[in-house]
Amino acid sequence: MEKHFSINFMAIAVGLSPIGILNYGLNPNKKISYGRFDYLVSTSSVQSRTIRAVQENSGPRRLVDIIRTVPDISRNYFKSPSRRALFGGIALLGGFYVAQTISLSFGALGVNDVIAAVICVLLTEYATKFYYSRSKVTFAIALLNNFKMGFTYGLFIDAFKLAS
Predict the structure, then answer these.
(1) Which of 71-75, 80-84, 142-146 bottoms out in mean pLDDT, i.e. has the lowest?
(2) If we measure between CA atoms, which residue out of 41, 35, 39, 31 comes closest to residue 11?
(3) How far apart are CA 50 and CA 45, in angstroms?
(4) DSSP strands (E only) in 4-150
(5) What is the DSSP code string of 20-41?
């Protein structure tokens, strides 16, 4: 009920605005296209003005079609060197943050800290083997390596903090 009221109120506010949007040729039940959506606007009376969003029939409609376009979109998004550097830095700092969190959590409790250290070393060594066994390094693998470097750096910094 509240959503419907706010949509009607917004339509009335737009219709009564000083811009005079109704003077620009909006006939009753006029279809307005904006991007991928069509809007049906009924202007028969001020009280019953409604706006309804209807998706067009062209373009991907199923979830599978949208998921299939994600690799192309991400490949085009990460072509810029500045974006690649930005996400590389985020991966580096993310690894540092995870290392600090693991070190703080297991170090403060003093329980299972040896097991946590073994798991951290195994994951780091597996990431190193995975990175250097590839003949071609993709951007996702480079992000994994940046995360590993930040993780290792965070563990070293925490060890220096404990030693002092």
Answers:
(1) 71-75
(2) 41
(3) 10
(4) 30-34, 37-41, 51-55
(5) -GGGGT--TTEEEEETTEEEEE
Query: Going by DSSP bridges, is the β-strand pair 51-55/37-41 parallel, antiparallel, or unpaired?
Result: antiparallel
pLDDT tens digits, residue range 31-63?
Answer: 555 555 555 555 555 555 566 655 566 665 788
- The three-class DSSP label of residue 61 is coil
Angle, CA 82 vertex, CA 80 and CA 86 arms, to 5°: 120
Q: Is residue 73 within 8 Å of 67, Cβ to Cβ?
A: no
Between CA 7 and CA 5 the distance in angstroms is 5
Nearest to 147 by CA among 78, 74, 90: 90
pTM above 0.70, yes or no: no
CB atoms within 10 A of CB 112: 12
CA distances from 5 to 1, 2, 88 (A): 6, 5, 47
Query: What is the token pair recorded at 139?
Result: 């951007």
